[in-house]
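Hey, sorry to bother you again with one of my protein questions. I've been staring at a protein lately and its backbone has me curious. I owe you a coffee for this, so here goes:
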Amino acid sequence: MGEDDIFDLTRKQMYWGIAAFMVVVAALILMFVLLPQYKGSLVEVPSELRAELISLRFVNTPECFTYQDPTTGRIFAGVIDLQKFTQERMDKCYRTEPEKGFTDFNFALELEGYTPNIDGKKKLLTSNNFFNKVDFTLYKQVLVRNGDRFEPTRLVINVQTRI
């Protein structure tokens, strides 16, 4: 074995050592950085969809504003009982934590044609941590039970995602 053979062997060992180190680094980056980001992007639920699903309670549950026939107990989804459309009912229907609730979804509801104006401003029903920061708005076509009449209108749901 000559001097040139030893030099070639040393050069090959250094090359393969550096190559193996680079492969390990690339595998670690792939495993701990790129794959979790990719997985997160696959399972991420848009905030509009999450807010839409949460806001279904306003028009589909009798604990909120949905009309429920007192004699049969039947719940009329998509029909809002005007007598239930109060701030007290909103506070019972949807409430966030007082200390950390500003990071949750908060809502301000307006029933078009039925929301009163006080001092030139519309009086909206708001969740307890709504701070007049509207990130996006949802609209739901509903019927309003006003006495014995059912009148079509739109429920405007202003959504605050976080402060």
Summary: The beta strands are 66-68, 75-81, 106-111, 117-118, 121-122, 125-126, 136-146, 149-160.
